[in-house]
Write a structure and sequence with these properties.
Blueprint: H1 3-15, H2 22-30, H3 32-51, H4 62-70, H5 84-121
Helix pairs in contact: 1-3, 2-3
Length: 122
């Protein structure tokens, strides 16, 4: 059995949506790679669960800092007339920018939490 095949099922096992049975269960019992991946999923789930009730208070400059990082280097010009195709492109671009901003904000939150834990451990 290939580890890539089992890998897809490991996240579902941690969520509780599935269980390892039969050939898949035997594979994970004997495969250190799959066991390590399962352990990583469990650690990630614990970390995300601990963030559920965590409220982050940030200063007013955080949004400006995130936008400065994701802003394109070229000048941005406004479109005066939008036809259907350009509206579609604008929407897709907006969704991509929002997703990037969300990912950047999430990375900042996780990095700050990890840095705080490392300071406490030292």
């Amino acid at each position: 059995m290939l580890c890539e095949t089992v890998s897809i099922q490991l996240a579902e096992v941690v969520d509780g949506d599935a269980s390892l049975a039969g050939e898949t269960g035997r594979h994970v019992e004997g495969c250190l790679r799959c066991q390590a991946e399962l352990a990583q999923y469990r650690r990630l789930l614990r970390a995300l669960t601990s963030l559920r009730d965590h409220h982050l208070f940030v200063d007013d400059t955080l949004l400006d800092e995130i936008l400065e990082v994701i802003r394109p280097p070229a000048p941005v010009h406004r479109l005066h007339r939008l036809n259907y195709r350009s509206k579609k492109v604008a929407y897709i671009g907006g969704f991509a920018a929002a997703a990037t901003a969300g990912a950047a904000a999430g990375a900042i939150v996780i990095a700050s939490r990890l840095a705080g834990k490392q300071r406490l451990a030292s």
